[in-house]
Amino acid sequence: MSPAPGTGAPRRVFLHIGLPKTGTTYLQQVVWANRDRLRADGLLLPGFGHREHLWAALDLQERPRLERRHRDAPGAWRRLVEEALAHPGDVLITHEFLCGASAEQASRALASFPGAEVHLVVTARDAASVVSAGWQESVKNGSTVDLDAVMDGRAAGGPEFSMRTWDLAGVLERWTPELPGERVHVLVMPGRDEAPDLHWHHFAEVLGLDPDAYDVPTESVNPALGIVQIETLRLVNQHLPKYNAHDRGVWIRGYLAEDLLARQPRERGGLPERYRSRFAQLDRAATEIVTTRGFHVLGDLAALDGERREAAARGAGREPGTVTAEELLESAARLVADIVADVRASTGDVPPRSRGII
């Protein structure tokens, strides 16, 4: 359905809701880096930047104490909607935390754009990969919760780090009842043996864009850590004060994780065998709703079968519980050495301490 002439409503609104750890950072980096070019081509990203889309996702979900993130965070969803409604072309709102919305909140989001043709864009991968990567991301954001607790239903931080946002079928059930199947686009994350920009090509196809007309990153974004480094960081987090969201992003995720621990030799993490049947059930439920509802799929839907993917790469992942004390000590020692080197480089001549002698 197109808007009536002269209404000023957008033609199409694309809500990219995640899931987390499905290539969202890569896609968002592409669109925000090309924001002006996209606007010239008729696609608006409302708001001042990625952070306002994050605020909007949390604002839509009525997250308490949102003003602690920033005084402008409350009301962010309404601001994006108002800017979108004033734009006569297409609109894209993108943040993976949107997938945590309840059914009522999702319905309210879809109803925010009267007269526009609303499309839902869902990036996806198999459940085991999403949960493993999502749990590791929670540790990079300051969590101390172990993987077994997450599997038992505990959130590893906010609701965005929980099975609520990592369960593809559950997200689709909450977000899609009011949408025709052809307006729900499921983009399966490409595998390691596929072209690195394939995800962007699929995303651009949904948006009606020429993917080759825009600059894309050539280096990995949001680098993964090895399982030893994740366990090291989880233990370090237990001794840190309660930082606010900004400081967690700068000092834990940015400095400790992605600047320092990411330098260390990396061994990919895996999931305990005892969870395999549960992940297989989640994968089957997701595939069933996608096929039954006739959603538009880009990529290989069979790749949502985690058992098949695991069989193809058996032995590639290591369980968190197998990390030894000796490995943790070695990783922590490297981390301390790197921190000391950084402090020394940044301070120059260090004055004598009030106690003792340097």
Can you tell me about this structure?
The structure is a single chain. This protein is of the alpha/beta class and 358 residues long. It has two domains: 12-222 and 272-314, Rossmann fold; 225-267 and 316-345, no CATH class. It contains 15 helices and six strands. It has a six-stranded parallel beta sheet with strand order 2-3-1-4-5-6, sandwiched between helices. Helix 3 (50-60) packs across helix 4 and helix 11 (227-237) packs across helix 15. The N and C termini lie far apart (72 Å). Residues 1-6 have low confidence and may be disordered.
Sum this structure up briefly.
The chain has 2 domains: 12-222 and 272-314, Rossmann fold; 225-267 and 316-345, no CATH class. Helix content is 45%, strand content 8%.
